[in-house]
Design brief:
14% strand; transaminase activity; three-stranded antiparallel β-sheet; Aspartate Aminotransferase, domain 1; PyrdxlP-dep_Trfase; Aspartate Aminotransferase, domain 2; alpha/beta; binds pyridoxal-5'-phosphate; aminotransferase
Amino acid sequence: MTTAAKSTNSVTLAEAGALYTAGRGYLAACTLGLPTIATINAMHADTEAWARGEACAARYCDVVERVRAGYADLVCVTPDRVAIGSQTSVLAGMVAASVPDGAEVVLPRGDFSSMVFPFLAQAHRGVTVRQVQLADLAASLNEKTWLVAFSLVQSATGKLADIDAIRIAARKTGTFTLCDTTQAAGWMPVDASAFDATICHSYKWLGAPRGVAFFTINSTFAANLHPVNAGWYAGDDVWASCYGPAMALATDARRFDVSPAWPAWVGAEPAIDLFRSLDLAEVRDHNVALGDALCDGLDLPRVGQAIISWPDADGRDLARLTAAGLTASGRAGRARVAFHLFNDEEDVALALAALRP
Ligand SMILES: Cc1ncc(COP(=O)(O)O)c(C=O)c1O
């Protein structure tokens, strides 16, 4: 398995800001991240090579292995614990298909559908989904709970799960943990080894193209999962696995791989490398400081989050932000803005000027 050099903290926040062609007024990393110049250039070069008839499957596979190793380093696991895919829902669906008949799964109410629907879709086998308030997640687990599945950072509200409490409760009740880090990885340090499994779609805070998703898993949980999406890429020897009739799957996490959307991985390589080069605690402090400054200006309590959202049932505040040329979003009857490393105090000032003219 390919290995990657360790994270370095070699790029400062100020240097990182200069790697983007946009960002001013872009308050939507929680919806869709921005590419750096390196990602744009890599994707251009790949498209041109493809057009010349020079794209090469084996080279794409090398890229995927480098990105797998880089992502493993980013989230503190080894590459043999990382599987690849293209969407959260498909990876969650594989876990959901492995929940034993009649077992219980506990989820936070209001979590993103790609983490919820795959489990609801198992109702025909008697799988029960209990949805509770995020704050009650840890206390809601009991010996009958097979799995607790939740986002580390909630999509609609930006709220953080109390992972220490959830892990302690899950250990006591013998419950497996599945954490979606899509709204967390890239703006805060994430340790995937703290959970039995994690899922991350990297097109938001990590700025990769859509279609690059990761699944991390430990060996105990892996022994309980069925690789229901297995194809040639899940084979022990990928290129010897293109045809049946026999199936010899990889023995490590690669057996959960789904064949990659190649060009997206070319764009993901510089994206993941950038975030491995940053001090993610510094990125978190920067993003949270901007979020807190917006809360101060809006007379909202500080929440210590990179995503700030507030009730906006009629969409008036979102319309104000949009009319001022800012890119924000609305979710679940709330206006939602996100601050990332390409934003600064001027973005906060622009948002406040639009909302409190
Ligand atoms: C927490 C979370 N997970 C996953 C996704 C994306 O899901 P999928 O990869 O199935 O498109 C989103 C998108 O907003 C999200 O907020």
